[in-house]
Amino acid sequence: MEARGFSFPRQRQVLFLFVFWGVSLAGSGFGRYSVMEEAERGSFVVNLAKDLGLADGELAARGTRVVSDDNKQYLLLDSQTGNLLTNEKLDREKLCGSTEPCILYFQILMDDPFQIYRAELRVRDINDHSPVFREKEIVLKVSENTAEGAAFRLERAQDPDGGLNSIQNYTISSNSFFRIKISGSDEGMIYPELVLDKALDREEQGELSLTLTALDGGSPPRSGTSTVHIVVLDVNDNAPQFTQALYETQAPENSPVGSLIVKVSAGDVDLGVNAEVSYSFFDASEDILTAFQINPISGEIFLRELLDYELVHSYKINIMAMDSGGLSARCTVLVEVLDTNDNPPELIISSLSNSVAENSPGMVLAVFKIKDRDSGENGKMVCYVQDNLPFYLKPSVDNFYILMTEGALDRESQAEYNITITVTDLGTPRLKTEYNITMLVSDVNDNAPAFTQTSYT
Ligand SMILES: *[C@@H]1O[C@H](CO)[C@@H](O)[C@H](O)[C@H]1NC(C)=O
Ligand SMILES: *[C@@H]1O[C@H](CO)[C@@H](O)[C@H](O)[C@H]1NC(C)=O
Ligand SMILES: *[C@@H]1O[C@H](CO)[C@@H](O)[C@H](O)[C@H]1NC(C)=O
Ligand SMILES: [Ca+2]
Ligand SMILES: [Ca+2]
User: Fold this and answer.
1) How far does CA 256 lie from the centroid of its chain?
2) Does residue 203 contact residue 149 with C-beta atoms inside 8 Å?
């Protein structure tokens, strides 16, 4: 370093000399001027002659001129009056950006004898900018199970003014969920954070829009706003819910395989996959699994096999609905099987004789029982024999009947009877069963031999 310094020419020594002068003058309070930014061209800064203690005309006589550090002519010297004026409108933000205070350095040069003074012009800030957010709308996605106290950093607004004229505060429109918290950054900037004060519930309120305002410290303060659009993200915090806890339905036992029995339905107030519900049987017996099937997506329950009222009168089916997150609900389906007249009456013979002796009224010829597996009208029966025959049916207990002769038979007039016992139920359509008995009339010696002729000649 040292060796290099020595290798540089005299120029630098001269510069040091200037600086020395400048500092000595500055120490005496000379050479510190200021002007408001955006002041019109020709605005008065200072009367240099007076400040330097020179007589009228001396400035002009000594060819006094003002040279700016960066060779830009911000200032103009009126040699006649000694007034130092602005040569253009100065924009603090353009000249200094975020550097505050904004100071432009310049020199005052004079000849005869040559003199140089160092001076500075401070461009004072005015609050000519409002805070501006880069985005007019900020979208913030917050999960509904976010804990209270969680903070969300928001992008800050920009205000090119300096000092107090720059951003000093942020506010948020009044709401019951969020408050604003102002934090400072390493660079002395402040930035807004939204802090969750009250837990969100997407099912109650899925989104909210707040107005974020940035305020600067000018008087009056300027402000800028942006909309914070908060989208509450769904969490699977709701189980599915059946529209009914109990579904009751009826199915005739002759319903074809594949018939729709009932459709169950469960809603889920969550969103997306959290609301995708699938249905299944729950705690189902083998009976249920063979008789029914369920569409896991639609909740429709179909018949898989013919129902038989005579075997099972009703089914109690438990259904579970589960969302993709594993939350579930259950309901019950009661299927009442309706009887149809699908069974003809049956006739069960207990005893039967195929022949009957003539001349024996009130003889028991057959004992039988009738039954019908259907119920209601479908199972009620009537039982009869032809009414043009000398036989009748005598009802007994428990659907037993006795076939009896009505009067004395006479083999000689009819030796054989075809008896048809008919049993019909009262269902729709009527079903009947017939039972045929061929009854032979057996001979009894009831006739004395008779001559074909009473006298023979
Ligand atoms: C910011 O604004 C709020 C609301 O008007 C106010 O309560 C708070 O004191 C302000 N903060 C500062 C640092 O000015
Ligand atoms: C009884 O039925 C048989 C055969 O069906 C028939 O041959 C006979 O003639 C019938 N008897 C009477 C009395 O109708
Ligand atoms: C019983 O007899 C009647 C009359 O002869 C006949 O129509 C019917 O088919 C017979 N039934 C049976 C089951 O044999
Ligand atoms: Ca401002
Ligand atoms: Ca400004």
Assistant:
1) 39
2) no
The two domains 127-235 and 346-442 share their CATH topology (first three levels equal): yes
Considering the chain, what is the average pLDDT of its residues? 88
Averaged pLDDT in 10-residue chunks for the chain of 457 residues = 37 44 49 92 92 86 87 87 92 88 91 89 94 94 93 91 91 96 82 94 94 94 96 93 96 94 96 92 92 97 94 94 92 95 94 87 92 92 93 93 88 89 93 94 72 69
What is the reported pTM? 0.63
What's the gap between Cα 407 and its chain centre? 87
> Which of the ligands is closest to the CA of residue 216?
4
Specify whether the CB–CB gap between 238 and 268 falls below 8 A.
Answer: yes
Q: Relative to the CA of 434, which ligand 3 atom is closest?
A: 13
CATH of domain 346-442: 2.60.40.60
Q: Of 346, 347, 374, which is closest to residue 254 (Cα–Cα)?
A: 374
Q: How many CB atoms lie within 10 A of CB 435?
A: 20
Neighbours of 296 (CB within 10 A): 14
Buried b or exposed e, range 36-57, using 16+ CB within 10 angstroms: ebbbeeeeebbebbebbebeee
Q: Give the mutation target among 418, 434, 435, 437 for probing the ligand 3 site: most ligand atoms within 8 A of CB.
A: 434
Please name the residue that has the structure tokens 């933000």.
93
Neighbours of ion ligand 5 (CB under 5 A): 125, 128, 161
Phi and psi, residue 178, nearest 5°? -120, 145
Query: Following DSSP, what letter does each residue of 255-269 receive, concatenated?
Result: PPTT-EEEE--EE--
pLDDT (tens digit per residue) in 390-425: 999 999 999 999 999 988 888 878 889 999 999 999
The two tokens of residue 338 are 């309706």
The CATH code that applies to domain 127-235 is 2.60.40.60
Ordered by start, the domain boundaries in the chain are 10-124, 127-235, 238-340, 346-442
C-alpha dist (Å) from residue 32 to 37, 39, 219: 16, 18, 26
Closest approach atom of ligand 2 to CA 416: 13
Q: In this predicted model, what pLDDT tens digit does every residue of 259-277 receive, in sequence order?
A: 999 999 999 999 988 999 9
